Amino acid sequence: MKHTPWWRDAVCYQIYVRSFADADGDGLGDLLGIHSRLSYLSQLGIDAVWLTPFYPSPQHDNGYDVADFRDVDGRFGSLHDFDSMLASAHDLGIRVIVDIVPNHTSTEHAWFKEALVADPGSPARNRYLFSGGTGRAGSRPPNNWRSVFGGPAWSRVKDGHWYLHLFDSSQPDLNWRNKEVRDEYESVLRFWLDRGVDGFRIDVAHSLYKEEGLPRAARQDTLATPYYDQPEVHSVYRRWNQVLKEYDGDRMAIAEAWVADPEAMARYIRPDELQQSFNFHWLQTPWSAAAFRRVITETLKAVEPVGASATWVLSNHDVVREVTRYGGGDLGVARSRAATLTMLALPGSSYIYQGAELGLPEVDVPARARQDPVWFRGGGVGRDGCRVPIPWSGSESPYGFGPDGAQPWLPQPSSWRELSVEAQDHRSGSTLDFFRRALAMRRAISGALGQRLRLPKSPPGVLVIERDRGFTCVLNCGRRPVRLVRLANSMGIPGQTFGDLLISSGDDAAVSDGLLPPDTAAWFKTGATVVRSHSHRLPGSTSRNRDGRG
Ligand code: GLC
Prior knowledge:
This protein has an 8-stranded parallel β-sheet with strand order 9-8-7-3-2-1-11-10, with helices on one face. Strands 12-13-14-18-16 form a 5-stranded antiparallel β-sheet. α5 packs parallel to α6 (233-245) and α10 (329-344) packs parallel to α13. The protein has 15 helices and 18 strands. The longest helix has 17 residues, at 179-195. By secondary structure, the protein is an alpha/beta fold. The protein has 3 domains: 6-103 and 179-438, Alpha-Beta Barrel (TIM Barrel); 110-164, Oligo-1,6-glucosidase, Domain 2 (Oligo-1,6-glucosidase, domain 2, Alpha-Beta Complex), CATH 3.90.400.10; 452-525, Immunoglobulin-like (Sandwich). The protein has helices at residues 31-36, 38-44, 79-91, 110-117, 179-195, 233-245, 262-266, 289-303, 322-325, 329-344, 373-376, 421-425, 431-446, 484-490, 508-512, and strands at 11-15, 48-51, 95-100, 130-131, 154-156, 162-164, 199-202, 252-255, 276-277, 311-313, 349-353, 453-454, 462-467, 471-476, 482-483, 500-504, 515-516, 520-525. It binds alpha-D-glucopyranose. Alpha-D-glucopyranose is lined by residues 61, 64, 101, 167, 203-204, 256, 317-318.
Protein backbone atom coordinates (compact mmCIF):
# COMPACT_ATOMS: atom_id res chain seq x y z
CA MET A 1 0.00 0.00 0.00
CA LYS A 2 1.22 3.50 -0.80
CA HIS A 3 2.67 5.26 2.24
CA THR A 4 0.93 8.55 2.99
CA PRO A 5 2.86 10.91 5.26
CA TRP A 6 0.81 12.02 8.26
CA TRP A 7 0.93 15.72 7.40
CA ARG A 8 -0.79 15.38 4.04
CA ASP A 9 -4.24 15.44 5.60
CA ALA A 10 -3.59 16.41 9.22
CA VAL A 11 -5.63 18.83 11.28
CA CYS A 12 -3.07 20.98 13.06
CA TYR A 13 -3.93 23.17 16.05
CA GLN A 14 -1.90 26.33 16.55
CA ILE A 15 -0.92 26.98 20.15
CA TYR A 16 0.00 30.58 20.78
CA VAL A 17 2.11 29.61 23.77
CA ARG A 18 1.76 32.85 25.77
CA SER A 19 -2.02 32.65 25.63
CA PHE A 20 -2.89 28.98 25.94
CA ALA A 21 -2.46 27.89 29.57
CA ASP A 22 -0.47 29.44 32.40
CA ALA A 23 0.66 26.79 34.92
CA ASP A 24 2.87 28.99 37.10
CA GLY A 25 0.60 32.02 37.41
CA ASP A 26 2.94 34.65 35.95
CA GLY A 27 0.27 35.72 33.46
CA LEU A 28 1.97 34.04 30.48
CA GLY A 29 1.13 30.61 29.12
CA ASP A 30 3.89 28.00 29.39
CA LEU A 31 4.96 24.49 28.44
CA LEU A 32 3.64 22.93 31.65
CA GLY A 33 0.32 24.59 30.90
CA ILE A 34 0.29 22.97 27.45
CA HIS A 35 1.26 19.64 28.98
CA SER A 36 -1.67 19.82 31.38
CA ARG A 37 -4.10 20.46 28.52
CA LEU A 38 -2.97 17.73 26.15
CA SER A 39 -5.95 15.53 26.98
CA TYR A 40 -8.26 18.41 25.98
CA LEU A 41 -6.49 18.57 22.62
CA SER A 42 -6.67 14.83 22.22
CA GLN A 43 -10.43 14.90 22.86
CA LEU A 44 -10.82 17.76 20.45
CA GLY A 45 -9.52 15.36 17.83
CA ILE A 46 -6.58 17.19 16.25
CA ASP A 47 -3.58 15.38 14.77
CA ALA A 48 -0.81 17.85 15.49
CA VAL A 49 0.01 21.05 17.32
CA TRP A 50 2.19 23.93 16.17
CA LEU A 51 3.80 25.84 19.03
CA THR A 52 4.77 29.50 18.53
CA PRO A 53 8.29 30.43 19.75
CA PHE A 54 9.12 29.61 23.37
CA TYR A 55 12.87 30.26 23.08
CA PRO A 56 14.80 32.75 25.24
CA SER A 57 13.76 36.18 24.06
CA PRO A 58 13.31 39.71 25.38
CA GLN A 59 9.73 39.32 24.06
CA HIS A 60 9.61 42.55 22.09
CA ASP A 61 7.64 40.63 19.46
CA ASN A 62 6.23 37.95 21.76
CA GLY A 63 9.08 35.54 21.17
CA TYR A 64 9.58 36.11 17.44
CA ASP A 65 12.70 37.95 18.55
CA VAL A 66 14.84 34.96 19.47
CA ALA A 67 18.00 35.36 21.57
CA ASP A 68 18.95 31.66 21.62
CA PHE A 69 17.48 29.07 19.28
CA ARG A 70 18.56 26.11 21.38
CA ASP A 71 16.86 26.71 24.72
CA VAL A 72 13.55 27.50 26.40
CA ASP A 73 12.79 30.92 27.92
CA GLY A 74 12.55 30.55 31.70
CA ARG A 75 9.09 32.16 31.55
CA PHE A 76 7.86 29.25 29.44
CA GLY A 77 9.73 26.45 31.25
CA SER A 78 12.83 24.42 30.49
CA LEU A 79 14.16 21.99 27.91
CA HIS A 80 13.15 19.26 30.30
CA ASP A 81 9.56 20.56 30.31
CA PHE A 82 9.66 20.56 26.54
CA ASP A 83 10.91 16.98 26.33
CA SER A 84 8.30 15.64 28.71
CA MET A 85 5.48 17.57 27.03
CA LEU A 86 6.64 16.20 23.66
CA ALA A 87 6.75 12.63 24.96
CA SER A 88 3.21 12.93 26.39
CA ALA A 89 1.92 14.47 23.17
CA HIS A 90 3.38 11.58 21.20
CA ASP A 91 1.84 9.09 23.61
CA LEU A 92 -1.53 10.64 22.84
CA GLY A 93 -0.88 10.44 19.11
CA ILE A 94 -0.33 14.19 18.73
CA ARG A 95 2.56 15.39 16.54
CA VAL A 96 4.43 18.53 17.52
CA ILE A 97 5.63 21.25 15.15
CA VAL A 98 7.83 24.06 16.46
CA ASP A 99 8.42 27.52 15.04
CA ILE A 100 11.76 28.41 13.49
CA VAL A 101 12.58 32.06 12.89
CA PRO A 102 15.28 32.33 10.21
CA ASN A 103 14.75 35.86 8.88
CA HIS A 104 16.06 37.61 11.97
CA THR A 105 17.33 37.19 15.50
CA SER A 106 16.78 39.34 18.55
CA THR A 107 19.19 42.20 19.21
CA GLU A 108 19.91 40.18 22.39
CA HIS A 109 21.30 37.25 20.36
CA ALA A 110 25.05 36.67 20.94
CA TRP A 111 25.71 37.26 17.23
CA PHE A 112 24.13 40.70 17.23
CA LYS A 113 25.87 41.74 20.42
CA GLU A 114 29.13 40.70 18.79
CA ALA A 115 28.24 42.61 15.65
CA LEU A 116 27.57 45.80 17.58
CA VAL A 117 31.07 45.96 19.03
CA ALA A 118 32.73 44.76 15.79
CA ASP A 119 34.01 46.98 13.00
CA PRO A 120 32.03 47.77 9.85
CA GLY A 121 32.90 45.14 7.27
CA SER A 122 33.92 42.56 9.91
CA PRO A 123 32.76 38.90 9.76
CA ALA A 124 30.55 39.52 12.82
CA ARG A 125 28.73 42.33 11.00
CA ASN A 126 28.49 40.25 7.85
CA ARG A 127 26.04 37.85 9.51
CA TYR A 128 23.48 40.68 9.40
CA LEU A 129 22.63 43.33 6.83
CA PHE A 130 24.65 46.35 7.88
CA SER A 131 25.26 49.19 5.47
CA GLY A 132 26.52 52.75 5.34
CA GLY A 133 23.82 55.41 5.06
CA THR A 134 23.03 57.88 2.32
CA GLY A 135 22.88 61.68 2.33
CA ARG A 136 25.22 63.96 4.23
CA ALA A 137 27.55 61.94 6.49
CA GLY A 138 25.40 58.88 5.85
CA SER A 139 22.69 60.26 8.09
CA ARG A 140 19.88 58.87 5.96
CA PRO A 141 18.97 55.15 5.73
CA PRO A 142 20.59 53.08 2.93
CA ASN A 143 17.28 52.80 1.05
CA ASN A 144 13.55 53.48 1.34
CA TRP A 145 12.43 50.13 2.74
CA ARG A 146 9.71 50.25 5.38
CA SER A 147 9.27 47.92 8.32
CA VAL A 148 6.24 45.62 8.10
CA PHE A 149 5.36 46.95 11.55
CA GLY A 150 5.50 50.62 10.46
CA GLY A 151 8.34 53.16 10.25
CA PRO A 152 11.68 52.73 8.49
CA ALA A 153 13.27 49.28 8.15
CA TRP A 154 16.68 50.63 9.17
CA SER A 155 18.18 51.65 12.50
CA ARG A 156 21.50 53.34 13.07
CA VAL A 157 24.24 52.16 15.41
CA LYS A 158 26.86 54.21 17.25
CA ASP A 159 29.49 54.21 14.49
CA GLY A 160 26.96 55.64 12.03
CA HIS A 161 26.21 52.43 10.12
CA TRP A 162 22.69 51.08 9.70
CA TYR A 163 21.19 47.61 10.11
CA LEU A 164 18.12 46.27 8.37
CA HIS A 165 15.06 45.06 10.27
CA LEU A 166 11.97 44.23 8.26
CA PHE A 167 10.10 43.99 11.56
CA ASP A 168 10.85 45.67 14.90
CA SER A 169 14.22 47.36 15.49
CA SER A 170 14.84 44.59 18.04
CA GLN A 171 14.71 42.02 15.18
CA PRO A 172 17.80 42.53 12.93
CA ASP A 173 17.62 40.67 9.61
CA LEU A 174 20.22 37.99 8.94
CA ASN A 175 22.40 37.85 5.84
CA TRP A 176 21.48 34.58 4.14
CA ARG A 177 24.23 35.03 1.56
CA ASN A 178 26.60 34.19 4.44
CA LYS A 179 27.36 30.46 4.74
CA GLU A 180 27.77 30.68 8.49
CA VAL A 181 24.12 31.71 8.78
CA ARG A 182 22.96 28.85 6.56
CA ASP A 183 25.04 26.33 8.53
CA GLU A 184 23.80 27.62 11.85
CA TYR A 185 20.16 27.06 10.92
CA GLU A 186 20.79 23.54 9.71
CA SER A 187 22.35 22.85 13.07
CA VAL A 188 19.33 24.38 14.86
CA LEU A 189 16.98 22.17 12.82
CA ARG A 190 18.98 19.13 13.89
CA PHE A 191 18.92 20.24 17.52
CA TRP A 192 15.10 20.05 17.58
CA LEU A 193 14.83 17.05 15.24
CA ASP A 194 17.13 15.12 17.56
CA ARG A 195 14.75 15.93 20.42
CA GLY A 196 11.95 14.36 18.40
CA VAL A 197 9.91 17.24 16.96
CA ASP A 198 7.79 16.28 13.97
CA GLY A 199 8.21 19.46 11.99
CA PHE A 200 8.78 23.18 11.73
CA ARG A 201 6.71 26.19 10.91
CA ILE A 202 9.05 28.58 9.12
CA ASP A 203 8.52 32.20 10.07
CA VAL A 204 8.48 34.68 7.15
CA ALA A 205 9.92 31.96 4.94
CA HIS A 206 9.78 34.15 1.84
CA SER A 207 11.96 36.97 3.15
CA LEU A 208 15.35 35.43 3.85
CA TYR A 209 17.02 36.73 0.71
CA LYS A 210 16.96 40.37 -0.26
CA GLU A 211 17.72 41.45 -3.80
CA GLU A 212 21.47 41.88 -4.31
CA GLY A 213 22.52 45.53 -3.84
CA LEU A 214 19.44 46.27 -1.69
CA PRO A 215 17.74 48.39 -4.38
CA ARG A 216 15.08 50.97 -3.71
CA ALA A 217 11.55 49.53 -3.53
CA ALA A 218 9.34 51.01 -6.24
CA ARG A 219 6.25 50.19 -4.16
CA GLN A 220 5.92 48.76 -0.68
CA ASP A 221 2.21 48.15 -0.53
CA THR A 222 2.50 45.06 -2.71
CA LEU A 223 4.21 41.73 -2.28
CA ALA A 224 6.47 42.52 -5.25
CA THR A 225 9.34 44.14 -3.38
CA PRO A 226 13.10 43.48 -3.36
CA TYR A 227 12.76 41.84 0.06
CA TYR A 228 10.14 39.18 -0.68
CA ASP A 229 10.13 35.95 -2.61
CA GLN A 230 13.59 36.18 -4.16
CA PRO A 231 14.57 33.11 -6.22
CA GLU A 232 17.64 32.31 -4.07
CA VAL A 233 15.45 31.43 -1.08
CA HIS A 234 14.55 28.11 -2.68
CA SER A 235 18.13 26.84 -2.37
CA VAL A 236 17.74 27.03 1.42
CA TYR A 237 14.64 24.87 1.38
CA ARG A 238 16.26 22.33 -0.90
CA ARG A 239 18.96 21.94 1.77
CA TRP A 240 16.39 21.71 4.56
CA ASN A 241 14.56 19.05 2.61
CA GLN A 242 17.75 16.95 2.76
CA VAL A 243 18.14 17.54 6.49
CA LEU A 244 14.55 16.46 7.19
CA LYS A 245 15.07 13.35 5.10
CA GLU A 246 17.91 12.22 7.33
CA TYR A 247 15.29 11.52 9.99
CA ASP A 248 12.55 8.92 10.11
CA GLY A 249 8.89 9.62 10.79
CA ASP A 250 8.00 11.91 7.88
CA ARG A 251 9.36 15.06 9.47
CA MET A 252 8.09 18.15 7.71
CA ALA A 253 8.25 21.91 7.40
CA ILE A 254 5.55 24.41 6.51
CA ALA A 255 6.31 27.86 5.15
CA GLU A 256 4.74 31.07 6.29
CA ALA A 257 5.07 32.76 2.92
CA TRP A 258 2.73 35.65 2.15
CA VAL A 259 3.15 35.57 -1.60
CA ALA A 260 1.15 36.98 -4.46
CA ASP A 261 -0.86 33.94 -5.59
CA PRO A 262 -1.22 30.17 -5.22
CA GLU A 263 1.33 29.63 -7.99
CA ALA A 264 4.02 31.54 -6.11
CA MET A 265 3.04 29.56 -3.01
CA ALA A 266 3.50 26.28 -4.87
CA ARG A 267 7.14 27.08 -5.65
CA TYR A 268 7.92 26.53 -1.97
CA ILE A 269 6.48 23.02 -2.02
CA ARG A 270 8.14 21.51 -5.05
CA PRO A 271 9.09 17.88 -4.39
CA ASP A 272 12.64 18.73 -3.29
CA GLU A 273 11.66 21.69 -1.08
CA LEU A 274 9.21 22.08 1.77
CA GLN A 275 6.28 19.81 2.47
CA GLN A 276 3.66 22.52 2.93
CA SER A 277 2.98 26.23 2.73
CA PHE A 278 0.16 28.04 4.49
CA ASN A 279 -2.64 28.90 2.12
CA PHE A 280 -3.56 32.37 3.33
CA HIS A 281 -5.81 32.90 0.32
CA TRP A 282 -8.47 30.91 2.18
CA LEU A 283 -8.54 33.36 5.10
CA GLN A 284 -8.56 36.33 2.74
CA THR A 285 -11.65 35.09 0.95
CA PRO A 286 -14.80 37.20 1.42
CA TRP A 287 -18.10 35.52 2.31
CA SER A 288 -19.03 34.41 -1.18
CA ALA A 289 -19.56 30.97 -2.69
CA ALA A 290 -17.97 32.15 -5.94
CA ALA A 291 -14.89 33.44 -4.11
CA PHE A 292 -14.48 30.20 -2.12
CA ARG A 293 -14.84 28.23 -5.33
CA ARG A 294 -12.16 30.32 -7.02
CA VAL A 295 -9.67 29.84 -4.17
CA ILE A 296 -10.27 26.09 -4.05
CA THR A 297 -9.83 25.77 -7.81
CA GLU A 298 -6.70 27.92 -7.93
CA THR A 299 -5.13 26.26 -4.89
CA LEU A 300 -5.61 22.74 -6.17
CA LYS A 301 -4.50 23.74 -9.63
CA ALA A 302 -1.28 25.15 -8.17
CA VAL A 303 -0.41 22.33 -5.76
CA GLU A 304 -1.33 19.35 -7.92
CA PRO A 305 1.46 19.71 -10.51
CA VAL A 306 4.10 19.79 -7.75
CA GLY A 307 2.50 16.78 -6.03
CA ALA A 308 2.07 18.63 -2.74
CA SER A 309 -0.95 18.62 -0.45
CA ALA A 310 -3.04 21.73 -0.05
CA THR A 311 -3.39 23.57 3.24
CA TRP A 312 -6.30 25.67 4.46
CA VAL A 313 -6.05 28.38 7.08
CA LEU A 314 -8.91 30.45 8.51
CA SER A 315 -6.97 32.33 11.17
CA ASN A 316 -3.75 32.66 13.13
CA HIS A 317 -2.11 34.97 15.66
CA ASP A 318 -1.50 37.70 13.06
CA VAL A 319 -4.99 38.28 11.70
CA VAL A 320 -8.38 39.39 12.99
CA ARG A 321 -10.34 36.38 14.27
CA GLU A 322 -12.75 34.94 11.70
CA VAL A 323 -15.87 35.42 13.86
CA THR A 324 -15.25 39.17 13.70
CA ARG A 325 -14.13 39.17 10.07
CA TYR A 326 -17.38 37.49 9.12
CA GLY A 327 -19.54 40.10 10.82
CA GLY A 328 -19.33 39.25 14.53
CA GLY A 329 -22.09 38.00 16.84
CA ASP A 330 -24.25 35.04 15.85
CA LEU A 331 -23.70 35.76 12.17
CA GLY A 332 -19.92 35.70 12.57
CA VAL A 333 -20.06 32.46 14.55
CA ALA A 334 -22.38 30.77 12.04
CA ARG A 335 -20.19 31.75 9.09
CA SER A 336 -16.98 30.72 10.87
CA ARG A 337 -18.45 27.31 11.62
CA ALA A 338 -19.62 26.93 8.03
CA ALA A 339 -16.24 28.00 6.63
CA THR A 340 -14.54 25.55 9.00
CA LEU A 341 -16.72 22.65 7.96
CA THR A 342 -16.10 23.52 4.32
CA MET A 343 -12.34 23.64 4.78
CA LEU A 344 -12.41 20.32 6.63
CA ALA A 345 -14.16 18.82 3.60
CA LEU A 346 -11.26 19.67 1.31
CA PRO A 347 -8.31 17.42 0.54
CA GLY A 348 -5.12 18.45 2.33
CA SER A 349 -4.59 19.69 5.84
CA SER A 350 -6.33 22.33 7.90
CA TYR A 351 -4.70 24.65 10.41
CA ILE A 352 -6.88 25.78 13.31
CA TYR A 353 -5.92 28.63 15.62
CA GLN A 354 -6.51 28.17 19.35
CA GLY A 355 -9.84 29.61 20.44
CA ALA A 356 -11.47 29.06 17.04
CA GLU A 357 -13.07 25.97 18.56
CA LEU A 358 -14.67 28.25 21.17
CA GLY A 359 -15.91 30.75 18.59
CA LEU A 360 -13.85 33.53 20.17
CA PRO A 361 -14.24 36.95 18.56
CA GLU A 362 -11.50 39.56 18.17
CA VAL A 363 -11.13 41.61 21.37
CA ASP A 364 -10.99 45.38 21.37
CA VAL A 365 -7.97 45.57 23.68
CA PRO A 366 -7.80 48.95 25.48
CA ALA A 367 -4.95 51.12 24.21
CA ARG A 368 -3.17 51.13 27.58
CA ALA A 369 -3.00 47.32 27.61
CA ARG A 370 -1.71 46.80 24.08
CA GLN A 371 1.65 45.12 23.65
CA ASP A 372 2.13 44.50 19.95
CA PRO A 373 5.15 46.30 18.45
CA VAL A 374 2.91 47.09 15.47
CA TRP A 375 0.95 49.43 17.75
CA PHE A 376 4.07 51.08 19.17
CA ARG A 377 5.60 51.60 15.73
CA GLY A 378 2.50 53.30 14.40
CA GLY A 379 1.62 50.41 12.11
CA GLY A 380 -2.01 50.28 13.23
CA VAL A 381 -4.01 48.88 16.13
CA GLY A 382 -1.91 45.69 16.12
CA ARG A 383 -2.63 42.03 16.65
CA ASP A 384 -3.32 41.85 20.40
CA GLY A 385 -7.05 41.41 19.76
CA CYS A 386 -6.61 37.85 18.50
CA ARG A 387 -4.02 36.94 21.14
CA VAL A 388 -6.04 37.33 24.34
CA PRO A 389 -5.51 34.29 26.65
CA ILE A 390 -8.21 31.71 26.12
CA PRO A 391 -10.96 31.03 28.69
CA TRP A 392 -11.06 27.55 30.19
CA SER A 393 -13.45 27.76 33.13
CA GLY A 394 -15.01 29.88 35.86
CA SER A 395 -16.94 33.10 35.77
CA GLU A 396 -14.21 35.71 35.88
CA SER A 397 -10.74 36.42 34.53
CA PRO A 398 -8.37 34.55 34.30
CA TYR A 399 -11.07 31.96 33.48
CA GLY A 400 -8.79 29.06 34.36
CA PHE A 401 -6.08 30.31 31.97
CA GLY A 402 -3.92 30.63 35.08
CA PRO A 403 -4.45 30.14 38.81
CA ASP A 404 -7.20 32.31 40.39
CA GLY A 405 -6.02 35.85 40.96
CA ALA A 406 -3.21 35.68 38.36
CA GLN A 407 -3.38 38.57 35.88
CA PRO A 408 -3.18 37.39 32.25
CA TRP A 409 -0.78 39.39 30.07
CA LEU A 410 -3.73 40.82 28.11
CA PRO A 411 -7.11 41.55 29.74
CA GLN A 412 -9.94 39.11 28.96
CA PRO A 413 -13.46 40.46 28.32
CA SER A 414 -16.15 39.74 30.90
CA SER A 415 -18.35 38.23 28.19
CA TRP A 416 -15.95 35.31 27.88
CA ARG A 417 -17.46 33.38 30.78
CA GLU A 418 -20.04 32.04 28.32
CA LEU A 419 -17.37 31.05 25.84
CA SER A 420 -15.12 29.08 28.17
CA VAL A 421 -14.37 25.41 27.58
CA GLU A 422 -16.30 24.58 30.75
CA ALA A 423 -19.35 26.56 29.62
CA GLN A 424 -19.40 24.86 26.22
CA ASP A 425 -18.21 21.43 27.22
CA HIS A 426 -21.52 19.65 27.63
CA ARG A 427 -23.72 22.13 25.78
CA SER A 428 -24.93 20.33 22.74
CA GLY A 429 -24.75 22.63 19.73
CA SER A 430 -22.01 24.77 21.25
CA THR A 431 -19.12 25.70 18.96
CA LEU A 432 -16.82 23.40 20.94
CA ASP A 433 -19.29 20.55 20.55
CA PHE A 434 -19.48 21.30 16.81
CA PHE A 435 -15.68 21.22 16.41
CA ARG A 436 -15.39 17.93 18.28
CA ARG A 437 -18.10 16.33 16.16
CA ALA A 438 -16.68 17.72 12.92
CA LEU A 439 -13.15 16.54 13.66
CA ALA A 440 -14.39 13.11 14.74
CA MET A 441 -16.47 12.82 11.58
CA ARG A 442 -13.56 13.90 9.40
CA ARG A 443 -11.38 11.29 11.03
CA ALA A 444 -14.03 8.63 10.61
CA ILE A 445 -14.50 9.20 6.90
CA SER A 446 -11.12 10.45 5.74
CA GLY A 447 -9.73 6.99 4.98
CA ALA A 448 -12.65 6.34 2.66
CA LEU A 449 -12.44 9.59 0.72
CA GLY A 450 -10.71 9.89 -2.61
CA GLN A 451 -8.46 12.86 -3.31
CA ARG A 452 -10.36 13.78 -6.48
CA LEU A 453 -12.72 16.68 -6.06
CA ARG A 454 -15.37 18.27 -8.24
CA LEU A 455 -17.10 21.61 -7.87
CA PRO A 456 -20.23 21.10 -9.96
CA LYS A 457 -22.14 24.07 -11.31
CA SER A 458 -24.58 25.27 -8.68
CA PRO A 459 -26.92 28.25 -8.24
CA PRO A 460 -25.42 31.61 -7.14
CA GLY A 461 -24.60 31.74 -3.42
CA VAL A 462 -24.19 27.97 -3.12
CA LEU A 463 -21.00 25.96 -3.26
CA VAL A 464 -21.13 22.21 -3.77
CA ILE A 465 -18.01 20.12 -3.23
CA GLU A 466 -18.05 16.50 -4.28
CA ARG A 467 -15.32 14.05 -3.40
CA ASP A 468 -14.82 10.56 -4.71
CA ARG A 469 -16.67 7.73 -3.03
CA GLY A 470 -19.90 9.37 -2.15
CA PHE A 471 -19.15 12.52 -0.17
CA THR A 472 -20.69 15.96 -0.71
CA CYS A 473 -20.33 19.23 1.17
CA VAL A 474 -22.84 22.01 0.48
CA LEU A 475 -22.20 25.58 1.67
CA ASN A 476 -24.93 28.20 1.60
CA CYS A 477 -23.47 31.72 1.41
CA GLY A 478 -26.77 33.14 0.18
CA ARG A 479 -29.53 34.99 2.05
CA ARG A 480 -32.26 32.33 1.73
CA PRO A 481 -32.50 28.73 2.87
CA VAL A 482 -31.65 26.25 0.15
CA ARG A 483 -34.16 23.46 -0.51
CA LEU A 484 -31.80 20.50 -0.88
CA VAL A 485 -34.04 18.32 -3.04
CA ARG A 486 -34.52 21.19 -5.47
CA LEU A 487 -30.79 21.88 -5.51
CA ALA A 488 -29.93 18.22 -6.15
CA ASN A 489 -32.63 18.09 -8.81
CA SER A 490 -31.31 21.19 -10.57
CA MET A 491 -27.86 19.59 -10.59
CA GLY A 492 -29.14 16.35 -12.06
CA ILE A 493 -28.16 14.28 -9.00
CA PRO A 494 -29.58 10.77 -9.33
CA GLY A 495 -32.28 10.13 -6.75
CA GLN A 496 -32.35 13.92 -6.19
CA THR A 497 -30.62 13.79 -2.86
CA PHE A 498 -27.07 14.33 -1.71
CA GLY A 499 -27.39 11.36 0.65
CA ASP A 500 -27.60 11.06 4.41
CA LEU A 501 -26.63 14.01 6.57
CA LEU A 502 -23.31 13.41 8.34
CA ILE A 503 -23.03 16.74 10.11
CA SER A 504 -23.97 20.38 9.61
CA SER A 505 -22.38 23.55 10.95
CA GLY A 506 -25.75 24.73 12.26
CA ASP A 507 -29.13 23.22 12.96
CA ASP A 508 -28.97 19.52 12.03
CA ALA A 509 -32.74 19.13 12.43
CA ALA A 510 -33.46 21.76 9.76
CA VAL A 511 -30.99 20.16 7.38
CA SER A 512 -32.46 16.70 7.98
CA ASP A 513 -35.82 18.21 7.04
CA GLY A 514 -34.31 19.20 3.71
CA LEU A 515 -33.47 22.89 4.24
CA LEU A 516 -29.95 24.26 4.37
CA PRO A 517 -30.22 27.61 6.20
CA PRO A 518 -28.11 30.63 5.13
CA ASP A 519 -24.55 30.73 6.51
CA THR A 520 -24.50 26.98 6.98
CA ALA A 521 -22.53 24.08 5.54
CA ALA A 522 -23.40 20.39 5.68
CA TRP A 523 -21.77 17.08 4.79
CA PHE A 524 -23.65 14.22 3.17
CA LYS A 525 -22.74 10.70 2.24
CA THR A 526 -24.21 8.37 -0.26
CA GLY A 527 -24.24 4.66 0.55
CA ALA A 528 -20.62 3.89 -0.26
CA THR A 529 -18.83 6.18 2.21
CA VAL A 530 -17.41 4.11 5.02
CA VAL A 531 -17.69 5.65 8.46
CA ARG A 532 -15.24 3.94 10.69
CA SER A 533 -13.55 4.63 13.98
CA HIS A 534 -9.92 5.57 13.80
CA SER A 535 -7.16 4.62 16.15
CA HIS A 536 -5.12 7.53 17.34
CA ARG A 537 -1.60 6.33 18.07
CA LEU A 538 1.62 7.26 16.42
CA PRO A 539 3.76 4.53 14.98
CA GLY A 540 6.66 4.57 17.48
CA SER A 541 6.38 7.60 19.71
CA THR A 542 8.60 10.06 21.60
CA SER A 543 12.10 10.94 20.49
CA ARG A 544 12.61 9.29 17.16
CA ASN A 545 16.15 10.18 16.29
CA ARG A 546 18.16 10.42 13.16
CA ASP A 547 18.92 6.74 12.90
CA GLY A 548 15.33 5.86 13.54
CA ARG A 549 16.14 4.58 17.01
CA GLY A 550 13.44 5.45 19.50
C1 GLC B 1 5.57 36.30 11.37
C2 GLC B 1 4.86 35.98 12.66
C3 GLC B 1 4.56 37.26 13.35
C4 GLC B 1 5.85 37.97 13.66
C5 GLC B 1 6.67 38.18 12.40
C6 GLC B 1 8.09 38.55 12.70
O1 GLC B 1 4.76 36.95 10.45
O2 GLC B 1 3.74 35.19 12.40
O3 GLC B 1 3.80 37.08 14.51
O4 GLC B 1 5.59 39.21 14.24
O5 GLC B 1 6.74 37.00 11.63
O6 GLC B 1 8.80 37.46 13.20
